[in-house]
Amino acid sequence: MRGANLALGAAGLAVFLALGEAVPRLGLVKEAYFPPTSEIADALAGELADSAFWTALGDTLTGWAVGLAVAACAGIVVGVVVSVVPYLREATASTIEFLRPIPSVALIPLAVLLYGNELRSVLLLVVYASFWQVLIQTLYGVRDVDPVAEETARSYGLGTWARVRYVLWPTALPYVMTGLRLAAAVALILTVTAELVIGSPGLGARIAVAQNSQAVPDMYALIVVTGLLGLLINVGARSVERRALAWHQSVRGEVTV
Length: 257
Prior knowledge:
- The protein has 11 helices and no strands.
- By secondary structure, the chain is mainly α.
- It is globular, with a radius of gyration of 23 Å.
């Protein structure tokens, strides 16, 4: 079954690449705006041979990884504290609902004003966008704790942090892992967006340079790289999620199927 899925996926990719080659060659779109797949592949090979490309890729991965790590730690800690401290969740609910819908891109002027095009500007946007993904999932996970299990732990004399470790955390972990997987994708999007708009070093800035210099095949090649990067991040996040939740019924069922 898995082999058949891989074959279908490869066939779909081959058809997509063939269409990308044929559509501009047949004149359905202008090659100046959408070059054939072969030209994009040549441009991609040129990018891979350029040391500046790898420097830009490293800058993007640095912004993504640092921002995601900060957001993950802050989201988990704040989510647990807000949930276990009496009345704190009710006191912060309106503030969370006010701040969460603010688009991260709306903070770009503030980031530029504070840090210019430095890495800190990227981190500001990445952390803000990713933090909410982790926080909200953590809050939902804690809310899903079985009250009977909670009361049983209390009756056995478990303290607050013991209940967090043995009752709350196992229940919330599937939600937290979902939040981390979503945050990983959001962090990449905001990293590239910040580099593209602000001009911070990275793949986004390199895409902007290719666009402004009319190097269209190079621009598409870099876009392909960001897409592949997103795919790898998603696959890696799912792999980590399956390992962390190997004991959970949902993952055991997925493996069995």
